Amino acid sequence: MSVASEDIPAEVENGTDGATPEVDPAATLPVSKPPPDPADTLAGADVLKDKVSEQSMTVAKIIEQLDSWGFSMGDTRISVWSILVVVLVVLSVIAFARIFSRVAHFLLKKIDSLDASQRLLAEKLLSIFVWAFAILIGIDMLGIDLTALAVFSGAFGLAIGFGLQKTFGNLLAGIILLMDRSIKPGDVISVTDASGAEGFGQIRKIGIRAISVVTRDKTEYLIPNENLMINQVVNWSYSSRDVRVKAPVGVSYGSDLELVEKLLMQAAIDTPRILNKPEPRILLMGFGDSSVDFEIRFWIDDPEEGLSNIRSDVLKRVWKLFKENKIEIPFPQRDINLRDSTQMEQLIAAIEQRSAKKT
Q1: Is the pTM here over 0.70, yes or no?
Q2: CATH fold of 180-230, please?
Q3: Interacting residues of 267 by C-beta distance below 8 A, sequence separation 6+
Q4: Which of 131, 199, 243, 330: CA 20 to 30 A from 82?
């Protein structure tokens, strides 16, 4: 007996019997990858091992052997292979950063529009960027999951903040000094040592933490950048390299003062390194206890070559000219008056008796 299709319910024809079809909830949810294991902080070592193993079975056996030598700390396993990968990545990051920094330094030297301070500032900023970029590349190559270190980031960051407070302060101070051009390589500044003696030194290098200042006696001072920001600094070549030097000279009261002035001027003119403009000046400073005091004032434009030596050259020339023209350089003289007393009379009598015995 045949049954007409119109007599069969649609639900039966579709095989559902009127029941609602069951839907698997898991089938409707998107498939997501499991969250990374916090203990798996060096996934890059495993990825590198798989890549190398696909290329050579011999190398794969060596890597497996290196990976088998290790120990576990909790859920984390540390092997010789993982340590080797970390060392290689760190060395690669350092090599990349140094090579790129040198290339950038070479390219910046080719830019003639930058002065010394601007070029040094660009090198510092570029070095910071290169090292930060290289470190991020190293972290990515190692496959380090930074979220696994989130627990320690607060305490670790606080410790670094306190430990490197002065370092970052000196770094920012050095950048600010280069930006306002108050201190730059080649400048001559006053340097005070531990005993309080002041000397002159030339800035050789401005580093991340300190500047290097070399004095005339080849002593190198490392002055923190922050000290130059908060303390008074005498920069002899900040706006101009011309420096005025003073050389005091005293002559006897019986000297011809006009001749003395002429000889002092000649001594200044005949000495190398002294500028003709501004021209030297001879000043009468006063009448001292035993001499008429003059002062030679002259200018030089190379303070890095020293100030004491040029003053010495001038005074030696003055000495020679004074000897030739019979100008006397006096020395202090004192009159001693002895008061009469019993002890003095006894001493004189004893000296006379001893003198009489010898004769």
Answers
A1: no
A2: SH3 type barrels. (2.30.30)
A3: 296, 314, 317, 318, 321
A4: 131
Q: Which residues contact 219 (CB under 8 A, 6 or more apart)?
A: 199, 201
Residues 224 and 207: their CA atoms lie apart, in Å, by 9
Q: Is 231 exposed, middle or buried (0-12, 13-18, 19+ CB in 10 A)?
A: exposed
Q: Where are the alpha helices (DSSP H) in 110-184?
A: 116-142, 150-163, 165-180
Q: Where are the alpha helices (DSSP H) in the chain?
A: 10-13, 25-28, 43-55, 57-68, 80-109, 116-142, 150-163, 165-180, 225-230, 257-270, 308-324, 342-358
Instruction: Write out pLDDT tens, residues 267-311.
Output: 999 999 999 888 999 999 999 888 999 999 999 988 878 888 899
End-to-end alpha carbon distance in the chain: 180
* Chosen CATH of 243-324 out of 3.30.70.100, 3.20.20.370, 3.30.1020.10, 3.40.228.10: 3.30.70.100
Nearest CA among 307, 300, 186 for reference residue 243: 300
- Cα–Cα dist 131/224, whole Å: 22
Task: Tell me the one-letter amino acid at 226.
Answer: E
Listed in sequence order, the residues at least 6 apart from 275 whose beta carbon sits closer than 8 Å to its beta carbon are 242, 298, 299, 300, 301
Cα 189 to its chain centre, rounded Å, is: 15
Average pLDDT over residues 91-105: 80
